[in-house]
Design a protein that fits this description.
heterodimer; A: alpha/beta; Rossmann fold; 10 strands; B: alpha/beta; 2 domains; 12 helices
């Protein structure tokens, strides 16, 4: 099947200063494809161009050159604009800027009202969307009484009620506390796994990228890496040079490998690291009962 | 004598309404001069309320805040002077930049203190340098700066008052790893250079643990502990039970101990953790 999104040699620049020829190039020829059902992180530091790239996906921005094709439609085709935006929903960083209504369920229904969805259908979709993000019991609450993580999940519900194929989330957890981050990440993964929604997560948090199936690293408007997270994070020094972090488990194993110990280079999570270290210790005969571990 | 002291301090919001909530509940705390304190706790644990009482922005419902041994709410106490002594940087402080130029914005605090031009100029230039803002940026409008630069300009504005205690509420929120490291290393440098007390509210234990000399852990409006990072992280299980996210490296070491490998339980930086493992691997000691 054809990929859901095809980004072909996309460049984007904007004029700087008074001279129209003087332009700052934010995207410098990006080519990527996103398949249906993928859970992809786009990782990069502030100013790397990752948010600009996200905005080209549903025609908030049009490429200066090159093309973005969504489900076979060129984002430059103005007649397809609404269609494209129904395929690709966007969630932004600040939950307070995305909530328009005074009651949670009315906020979730806002997009559907604009699409002219009949009211009985709307009721079904709003309830489903709120259930999917775990906010159904808050449906009659006022958004300002919710925590940041809850508000962000309401914003996500408002998008999925429109039944998009794909959600693009631009740093959705940047303004949340650790609990809110966990809630939003859990919701994103569930939508991908149980509802088959393609998720493109724009982030600079390595622990969020580590939970995705694929990580695209953007730097200075170019794709620097595109691989599963365990491959991407194994390049510890390169990631550092790009102003990004790697999981502490990966870094720890990297330091021990540098000292000559044989450890895998694809470790991201604490339990993997504990297993690998326990195996190493038992192999060295330092402990006798740890190698087999709990699993 | 501690520079800041909280004695049986309590703050209750919306007293006498159905929304009544005690955000700080009978807290006793002594902050010594020159400490670099990290403050960790859930949203709603009382961090921000406690900090706002420390510089007299909120008046305690009961209890006392002492600065240099003097009750800041005493009748004749000069609370304006207290706020010059205890500088508070709010969350997302860049939203509060308002002057025409970065220079004027940083100068706003010192100007209000009634300092002369020369002294103001010295302070503006010194603090701008401390937060890594170049000369030419000082004459720009704050709106021409990048997000990270704005944040640092706002911090400089409070530093320029040269407070005895600098309190920052989540100064790294929303920044990328590079931006976070930049601000935290600059704060460490500021702390070393001036010897002032710095208090840093943060959600990220990983970030905070590397920099601070003491950690204050709050939960449900009370102090859970106030101790050195290694002693705090040695009680990792208790922190995890409170739902506080431990650094991954700390969790790894707790996991190794559970497997019978004799490693320290107070590991909170990767470097220290790697050193411990290497000496164990080389020495072959620590058999269970």
């Amino acid at each position: 099947m054809e990929p859901l999104i095809i980004i072909d040699n996309v460049r984007f620049s904007y004029p700087t200063g008074e001279n129209p020829d003087e332009r700052t190039e934010v995207l410098k020829g990006i080519s990527l494809t996103f398949e249906r059902g993928e859970l992809v992180a786009v990782l990069g530091h502030n100013g790397s161009g990752k948010s600009t790239l996200a905005k080209t996906l549903n025609a908030v921005l049009l490429p200066t050159s090159g093309t973005v094709t969504v489900a076979g439609m060129d984002t430059k085709d103005e007649e397809k604009l609404l269609d494209i935006r129904q395929h690709i929903g966007m969630v932004f960083q600040n939950p307070d800027n995305q909530i328009v209504a005074t009651i949670v369920e009315e906020d979730v229904a806002f997009g559907l009202e604009n699409l002219g969805v009949p009211s009985d259908e709307m009721r079904v979709r709003v309830d489903q969307a709120l259930n999917a993000v775990g906010m159904y019991e808050y449906r009659t609450h006022a958004p300002h009484q919710l925590s940041g993580g809850q508000k962000q999940r309401v914003a996500i519900a408002g998008i999925i009620a429109m039944r998009p194929d794909c959600i693009v989330l631009d740093e959705p957890t940047a303004m949340l506390d650790p609990q809110g981050r966990r809630e939003v990440m859990r919701t994103i993964k569930l939508l991908n796994r149980d509802y088959g929604i393609t998720v493109i997560l724009i982030t600079h948090e390595m622990d969020e990228a580590a939970q995705c199936d694929r990580v695209v690293v953007i730097d200075h408007g170019e794709v620097r890496m595109d691989a599963p997270p365990e491959k991407v994070f194994s390049h510890v020094r390169e990631m550092r040079e790009l102003g990004l972090d790697v999981p502490q488990a990966t870094e720890l194993c990297d330091l021990l490998r540098q000292a000559g110990y044989d450890l895998p280079d694809d470790i991201l999570h604490a339990d993997q690291c504990i297993d690998a270290l326990a195996a190493l210790f038992s192999q060295k005969g330092i402990i006798s009962n740890a190698g087999s571990g709990s699993n | 004598m501690p520079v800041l002291e909280a004695i049986d301090l309590t703050y209750t919001y919306s007293i006498g309404t159905p929304f009544e909530k005690t955000a700080v509940d009978h807290i006793d705390l002594q902050i010594e001069q020159g400490e670099f304190v990290g403050i960790i706790g859930h949203t709603g644990s009382g961090k921000s309320t406690l900090m706002q009482m420390m510089n007299g922005l909120l008046q305690p419902t009961s209890g006392t805040v002492k600065l240099d041994g003097k009750d800041i709410w005493e009748k004749k106490a000069d609370r304006r002077a207290v706020r010059f002594q205890v500088g508070l940087v709010f969350q997302y402080p860049e939203y509060q930049l308002f002057e025409e130029t970065v220079y004027k914005d940083i100068a706003f605090g010192p100007k209000n203190m009634g300092l002369d031009e020369k002294e103001i100029d010295r302070r503006v230039r010194e603090t701008a340098e401390a937060v890594g803002l170049s000369e030419e940026l000082l004459q720009k409008s704050p709106y021409e700066l990048s997000g990270g630069q704005k944040r640092r300009a706002a911090i400089a504005g409070v530093m320029a008052m040269e407070p005895k205690v600098l309190i920052l509420d989540e100064p790294t929120a929303g920044l990328d790893p590079k931006g976070r490291t930049k601000i935290l290393t600059q704060l460490r440098e500021y702390h070393r250079r001036t010897g002032c007390t710095v208090m840093l509210v943060s959600h990220s234990m990983e970030d905070v643990a590397k920099y601070v000399s003491r950690l204050l852990v709050l939960s449900h409006a009370k102090v859970v502990c106030y101790d050195t990072p290694s002693n705090v992280f040695a009680r990792g299980d208790a922190l995890a039970e409170m739902g506080l996210a431990l650094p991954q490296i700390t969790r790894i070491f707790h996991g190794l101990r559970a497997r019978g490998i004799v490693v320290p339980d107070e590991v909170y930086t990767v470097k220290y953790g790697a050193e411990q493992l290497l000496s164990l691997l080389k020495g072959g000691e620590g058999t269970c």
